[in-house]
Amino acid sequence: MPEPLLACHDVAYTYRRGTPMAAEALRGVTLGVAAGELLGLIGPTGSGKSTLIQHFNGLLRPSRGRVVVAGQDLWAPRADRRAARRLVGLLFQFAESQLFEETVRRDVGYGPRALGLEADEVEARVDEALRQVGLDPARFGGRSPFALSGGEMRRVALAGVLAMRPQVLVLDEPTAGLDPRARAELLDHIRALHARGLTVVLVTHNMDEVALLARRVVVLHAGQVAADGAPRAVFAREDDLRAWGLGLPQAAALVRRLRSRGVRVGDALTFAEARRAILAAAREAPRGDR
Ligand SMILES: Nc1ncnc2c1ncn2[C@@H]1O[C@H](COP(=O)(O)OP(=O)(O)OP(=O)(O)O)[C@@H](O)[C@H]1O
Ligand SMILES: [Mg+2]
Asked: What is the mean pLDDT of residues 255-259?
């Protein structure tokens, strides 16, 4: 197996370490993310998801264990931490609250300018990043980020991350608080970015998003990896999910409810799959059952 692009080895993290208020948020997390993956990271509130992803680009330093990005141990004495962390772009939860420049263009260009890039290069990156999130630079570039809709603001914040040209995109609940249309739009852009080769880690409370997008799902519980596998396998562990305080994708819950009522219907994770499974069950049911 090739070396993962990003890896945590036995990472532990304690907030306010050494004080009476110490809180152990991560308790030995080992996890590898391969180039090109789209990984869903789920877990109940307080399980350590946000703490873990802040280790991915060196914002937090582990109390124990190692974080390796592109073969570089982030906290080794002579590590080029800045180069390694540039590979990992992190979109914070409610990232639009961090927009601050007068125009969309200036905001998206903030990171590239801070890198000291030439003006032409900055502008090219801003155009590219805005297009990647479905915002026409000519239409949106000159506007104030504060005069946009919630979904647009969120996409401007994402463009700011993309303008740094990361190899790994880490998204902390990117659709939280968005209406269904803005949510669907953002998910489409995330899917397209992944299709273009970006490695994506998606933190979410929304199991439907995991079912739709992720090829692999990692469950954090009480600061540890409780499950790591294909969505189909993880969502089959109904009792464990309940114990972890997690639900099922809506489509999976639907077919299970049907089955508990005696309908012989196969498994499904998405509504498209549920529809197929239900139609197949209807076709196969003996006439008397209909
Ligand atoms: N700045 C902080 N200071 C002290 N404790 C913190 C801090 N941030 C998080 N914690 C604690 O660390 C644990 C993990 O929190 P974290 O925010 O990583 O969880 P999470 O899985 O992202 O939760 P959520 O789903 O609510 O976003 C929790 O017990 C939390 O109370
Ligand atoms: Mg969080």
From this structure: 89
